[in-house]
Amino acid sequence: MCTGLQSKPQAAFSLVEVMVALAVFTLVIAGAFVAINRGYDLVTESRHYTRASQVIQSEIELLRTLPWETFSGLDAATLENLFDQQIESQFGAGTYDGAIVIRSLGTNFIGIDVSVTWSDIRGRDKVVTYRTEFTKEGVNDYYIN
Predict the structure, then answer these.
(1) Which of 38, 53, 90, 98 has an alpha carbon within 20 to 30 A of 22's alpha carbon?
(2) Beta carbons of 56 and 128 less than 8 angstroms apart
């Protein structure tokens, strides 16, 4: 009897198994990149929304400091021009666009809508608007639309 060395076949992955594993790994990595990109977009959108809200609140508080005689004599174009100057001084030109709409609600009662518009990463316009009322004898709180 001859007992020669017999080698057992080595266990290895076939080419098909390697290709399937590579495809699964590629899908996992691509999914991770998509999730990271979407997370970055959400953080950026949240930052813009927060910044726009702060700018609007700042503008409303600035308007509240004006005496009624001065405030009631201003028109929407003048207020909007001052608001745009404030935005540009804080954030640079072209980042945000401000708008102010005056709603005359009587001789001693004026409503104002203050809006800020910006474009997101995909070029879609986003708008935040706050509404407030001013009265000759005092000021009420503002409401978010």
Answers:
(1) 38
(2) yes
Tokens of 103: 């709603």
- Please tell me the distance from the alpha carbon of residue 25 to that of residue 129, in angstroms, as a whole number: 45
15-38 as b/e: b if 16+ CB within 10 A: eeeeeeeeeeeeeeeeeeeeeeee
- From the list 94, 98, 24, 20, the residue with the least C-alpha distance to 54 is 98
Cα atoms found within 13 Å of the Cα of residue 135, Cβ hemisphere only: 6
Alpha-carbon span 123 to 107, nearest angstrom:
41
Q: Which residue has the tokens 């001084």?
A: 89
Rg, C-alpha atoms of the chain: 31
CA distance linking residue 128 with residue 61, whole number of Å: 17
In DSSP terms, 144 is beta-bridged to 130
pLDDT digits (tens, 9 = 90+) for 5-38: 666 767 777 889 999 999 999 999 999 999 999 9
Residue with tokens 């009631």: 72
Q: For 2, list phi and psi in degrees, rounded to 5.
A: -110, 120
pTM score: 0.68
Query: Residue 108 corresponds to which tokens in the numbers above?
Result: 């001693």
